[in-house]
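Priority: low. Protein: Malate dehydrogenase (NAD). Input follows.
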Amino acid sequence: MLANEIKVAVFGAGGTGGAIAELLLYNNFGEIALIDVNGALAEGKALDIVQAGVLTGCDSRVQGGSDPALCAGAQIVVITAGIGRRPGIAREELLATNAQIVGDICEVIKQLAPNAFVIVLTNPADILARVAWEKSGFAANKVVAQGGILDSARLATWIAALCDVSQRDVRAMILGGHGDHMLPVRQFASIHGIPASLLMTDELWQTAVERTRHGGGEILSKFHTHGAAITPAHAVVAMIQALLSPIPQLLPVSVRSAGAYGLPEDVFIGLPVKLSHKGVENVLELPLEADELAQLHRSAAILDQAFQAWRTCQSSS
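Result:
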């Protein structure tokens, strides 16, 4: 199979960054750059991935190293670089260190890949997407964070398990921040087009929500040294595919709210959006229950307060 002409640069060659690069190979992206401060790690993973192309019939060019210039000319840049979560550490506690890392990367992107779409995966992803938007100077429709797709997949998994149906039949959507203050929207969950609320008791729904809300922490507690990698990687590749398609996909993606749902304009938060080769085409303002809207606003307030606290620290240092 012939590779396409798209170049994707991935900053961070850890578990998720490596998994993203591998999936991009299987999807026959023309050029994949894997960049990490540990250049040997990035080089080794790039070699391992490109050699798999012989056995899978994939012809992508895969490069790895520590030189940020490897991102030059990329149409899409994914940021996974930064310190990861450890048991007992909240995503927001990672902000100070990871904001510096993401900011530095965005300075490079601005110079070497000025037309790229930017996808932020580094935690806390919603807040760091706002950092990336400000540091890059890019239009808001070109900077997004992953979170909602991953969380929605986790919710769909639990709905399927609790209702004893195929995962392929389940659709779910989670809005709000990627963290404990996420907003699972019950009316948006369905099983082969049937509202999930008709097939799930309140107790089953709450069980699915709680397993989803703490899903990342549960996986982290099993691994001890790192969090989930495989599903986040698939979620990012789904976003990349959407950003290359002329046909918009409706996805829960962390974007600048621009005042949708009455939220603070500059907050990046998970919302239902149309995502395409134009970037974020628009946010869909769907009807929410009063308590859901209040929860969405609480989530936005938490994200905004964390960002403002970080900014204050930056100004005083």
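Residues 148-225+289-302 form a domain with the L-2-Hydroxyisocaproate Dehydrogenase; Chain A, domain 2 fold (CATH 3.90.110.10). The CA atoms of residues 141 and 280 lie 5 Å apart.
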